[in-house]
Amino acid sequence: DYKYIISVSQGWDNNASRYKDAMKLAQKLPDGYKLLLVGSVLRGSKIEEPLVHIPYINGSKELSAAYSMAEAYIHLSVEDTFGKVIAEAMTCGTVPITFNSTACGEVPGPYGLVVAPHDVDAIVDAIPRLSELQKQSDNIIKYVLDNYDYHTNAQQYVDLYTDILKDK
After folding, report:
1. Is the bond into 50 cis (omega within 30 degrees of 0)?
2. How much of the chain, in percent, has pLDDT values that exceed 90?
3. Is the pTM value of this prediction over 0.85?
4. Sheet of 72-75: strands edge to edge?
């Protein structure tokens, strides 16, 4: 009966800023929305309502199903350098919302929403735009494959070094 926004972390800690932002966001979401946290809970912490929690998802099929059922993936980290989970969510056609910190704000390209760090109000304000962005799920997937595929990126390095060696 709910629309879900999902956030994935290796471990959730009540004292971490991403958990605090998740709680603020969950409390401000419009009716009919829930924030689903995926990942283990660190010792001494617990996930409290109104957050919904799945401890750990084992397997790529299960994880892709969780991403695919979500209205959006929210990346609450201000420390990650790339944010592989952003690209993972996008390969399922899921709209990413990231903080504009480190390179995470660059990962979604034109297919995500980027807000200032810790600005949960901007996230809530962006929710009405999600349905329009979801219509571009095929483009989201293509963007990730074109820009973050291992073989494509490895070949770009080979091409770069080949060009450098040709000049010498």
Report:
1. yes
2. 80
3. yes
4. 52-54, 33-41, 3-12, 72-75, 95-99, 113-115
